[in-house]
Amino acid sequence: MAAKASTPTTPVVFVIGEDPVEAGLVASLNRPGGNATDVSDFVNQLVAKRLDLLQQAVPGFALIGLLVNPSNPNAEPDAKEARAAVKALGQKLLVVKAASDRELEAAFETLAQERADALAVNIDPFLFRAHDQIISLAARYGFPAIYPLRAFVDAGGLMSYSPNRLVSWHQAGLYAARILHGEKPADLPVQRANKVELVINLKTSKALGLNISASILARADEVIE
After folding, report:
1. Which of 8, 98, 208, 217 has the smallest CB count inside 10 Å?
2. DSSP of 11-58, one letter per residue?
């Protein structure tokens, strides 16, 4: 937002996880207008799918926790979507909030006290920066968890379902090249990320004493052993 507002003429190409129209970055997906265009992962629209995959991977959950950063505008709409998804699965949702390291500790204590069976982590810059701490806490409390980016799984998290960011950045680079060759951001439609992947860490699964269902393993784009 700061880059876009700094000048009305300098082209801006960005990768975002949310709807850029709702975020106020472009006028519409087909005709962005102004000086900015982008690739959108629409990663926040995958909340329900993550919860469904988590339930399929390790069936039998009754209460699922959702970790959000209350400072992020996506917290409430994503929690609302998660509640609807969990209700459809015949389960209950416990939303816990954290915007600091200390609040992360408290959030996991709440999950343990309420006897949550599993955890989904929402997309957020702070939660991503704190991924080592979150993964450590999930292991300490024995929570099977699904994450919004594969970087969590590479660092030891159980599973993730998310757009492939390398592909998104490549798409953004192609747009930057087109702009450098004379096209205008206002005329370049917002692109959707064209690859979404499921990644599972079997080492973490074994450490948690879980048996991931064979059907989910077969659907995974990558299994880390």
Report:
1. 8
2. -EEEEESS-TTTTTS-S-SS---TTEEEEE--GGGGHHHHHHHHHHHS
- End-to-end alpha-carbon separation of the chain, Å? 40
Residue 5's SS3 state is: helix
Q: What is the DSSP letter of 208?
A: T
Give the span between the Cα atoms of 40 and 55, in whole angstroms: 27
Interval 145-168: pLDDT, tens: 999 999 999 999 999 998 888 888
pTM (predicted TM-score): 0.84
Tokens of 106: 């408290």
pLDDT single digits (tens) 104-128: 999 999 999 999 999 999 989 999 9
Q: Which two tokens stand for residue 190?
A: 């917002």
